[in-house]
Amino acid sequence: MKKESIKLPLREEIPSKLTWDLTLIFKNDKEFEKELEEIEGQIANVENRQGSLSKGSTAFLDSLEAILQLERRMEKAFVYANLKNDQDTGNKYYQGFIARARQLYAKVGAGVSWFEPELLELPIEKLKGYFNQNTELLAYKHLIAKITAQRKHFLSAKEEELLAGAADIFSTPENIFGVLNNSDLKFPEVRDAKNNLIQLSHGNYGRLLESPQRSVRRAAFTEMYQVYQQFQNTFALSLAAHVHTHNYLAQKRCYPDARSAALTRNNIPVSVYKTLVEQVNHHLPLLHRYVSLRKKILKINEVHMYDLYTPVTKIPARTYSYKDSQEIVLKALSVLGNDYTARVKEAFENRWIDVVENKGKRSGAYSSGMYDTAPYILLNWQNNLESLFTLIHEMGHSMHTYASNTSQDYHYSDYSIFVAEIASTTNENLLTQYLLEHTEDPHVKAYILNHYLDGFKGTIFRQTQFAEFEQWIHEQDAEQKPLTAKEMNAFYADLNKRYYGPDIFNDSEIAYEWERIPHFYYNFYVYQYATGFAAASALAQKILTEGPNDYLNFLSAGSSDFPIEIVKKAGVDMTETTYLESAFGLFEKRLDELEKLITKLS
Ligand SMILES: [Zn+2]
Q: Which residues are in the Oligopeptidase F N-terminal domain (predicted)?
């Protein structure tokens, strides 16, 4: 398991061409430290401006720009500290950097926290007057409008103070969940594929469920839920309390319900959520067909919940080196035009990517950057197809960041979570299409088709299932109906049965699945995974048939408008059903292909 202690190279042993070049941010650590000191010195200057917003348009503009300037410098310093820390999390020196950057970030946050409440208290007429008097303010119009749109949900200063003071108390249920789930629960030992006894954990559960050996995945599944069954009442109480705070706050802030409160912040119409749930339900027969196909390929009489994650196709024997993968990425993305691929080459050539694993390096992969840094990528490269998909995914994020940064002013450069996964998943879709067209080997083809179908299942179907559950628990609480483990288990078991269809065996354990999902402690968040994936599926098809121009406009838009409007620029209206139908159409087409291929291969 802990292979890094045996053979992973040390950070300093990695050839520099495979590491990211952080001197593009600060020439050296000294410059970073100097910048931290200067930022700290600027905080008072921003704090002292409290009360300035009502003192005329020039004072207003000066304060706004001083705040943005400070935040911009802080973000840059933070990115540097964060990347330095992640490249070797065991390095004490850089642990110190990130700790200091975090502390300073909090100080900056506190120093600028007066701005929004003060803006919300500024009379509308006065603010309108500012825009007439000072045309320079027009550059910030949408930014200010986004904040002032919350005006009717803002309470009196006294009430706001009371709520702000209780923020810790409101997050207690989530904290209880975290401690219970991550440290108090003890899982038993189970046997792995080599018949070794290993300690079951959140970390290895997913891998055990993917085991080709059925007894291994069955044991992991039953033992895991054995534990959750014992604690169902505590989990239910903490989740119900969490949901209750959402409903309470939404009501006090004059929203029709908690979901509206969560979506309104990004100006997402509730119809987007409702349409997603309706369309997914309408297309559940496709998921049922996929479950039957699994049953057929795995040659089992009953499909249990623990049979849904094991690969149904052999992992391709061919390897994908980093060098070959760079070529494939450029070819697959060539449909986005020369400017786009020139920027991808820039990422490869200018060392924006930290490629290989070393001792202490943060696991997984991500794209991270801000207005004044390159859009860096962290990878833990393995020579396989999964790594190729990860590379093109993160490149999608980085090219989105790059396009928004070069087209927008700083204050509109950051795109919202609602659109973030669209750029990365569109790239994955383009890669899938490219690989399907350029692969002869039927086994590799089957693997790629299944990779797509599994991704679709896990993102569109599963996240919408979660979204339905999340909506239901909020409704139960709002209607003052009981929300104990008994009700949650029953609802969840039915929901699961409806999603996976007639071929799924009713494992009683699955009723407890809601207990272990941390996302239920977010706030109407998961539906965005599903909408983002579907939009990307529709966009990739549009790029391949109509060309990339609309899509490139979307990439450049940053947060210059509300997310729904920005996606419209790419030609996808997420308040309509068309984009979802297009995504399900592609799922069906690829399901057909895999069914045919499997018949031919068997
Ligand atoms: Zn992503």
A: 118-187
Selection from 322, 332, 331 nearest residue 353 by Cα: 322
Percent with pLDDT over 90 in the chain:
87
Pair 193, 227 in one domain: yes
3-state secondary structure of 91: coil
Buried b (16+ CB within 10 A) or exposed e, 448-472: bbbbbbbbbbebbbbbbbbbbbbbb
Give the total number of structural domains in the chain: 2
Burial class (CB in 10 A: 0-12, 13-18, 19+), 602: exposed
**Which residue in the list 71, 75, 394, 513 is annotated as catalytic?**
394
Q: Residue 157's pLDDT is what?
A: 79
Share of the chain above pLDDT 70, in %: 99
Report the distance separating Cα 493 and Cα 470, nearest Å. Answer: 14
Q: Which amino acid would we find at residue 589?
A: K
Supply φ then ψ for residue 367, to 5 degrees: -115, 135
Residues 135 and 203 in one domain: no
363 alpha carbon – ligand 1 mean position (Å)? 15
Distance 421 CA to ligand 1 centre (A): 5
- Tell me if 524 sits within 8 A of 257, measured CB to CB: no
The 8-class DSSP code of residue 518 comes to G
> Does some domain include residue 347?
no
- Structural domain including 54 reads 11-170
CATH number at residue 85: 1.20.140.70
* 164 and 223 inside one domain: no
Helix axes 214-230, 232-252, angle to 10 degrees: 70
Q: Is residue 327 part of a domain?
A: no
Distance 384 CA to ligand 1 centre (A): 19
Q: Catalytic site residue 513?
A: no
Phi, psi of 113 (to 5 degrees): -70, -15
For residue 164, what pLDDT band results from cuts at 50, 70 and 90?
Answer: confident
pLDDT tens figures, 74-96: 999 999 999 999 999 999 999 99
Whole-number Å distance, alpha carbon 379 to ligand 1 midpoint, is: 12
* Cβ atoms of 211 and 223 closer than 8 Å: no
Q: Are residues 162 and 245 in the same domain?
A: no
The dihedral built from the CA positions of residue 179, 180, 184 and 186, taken in this order, carries a sign that is negative
Centre of ligand 1 to C-alpha 156, Å, is 39
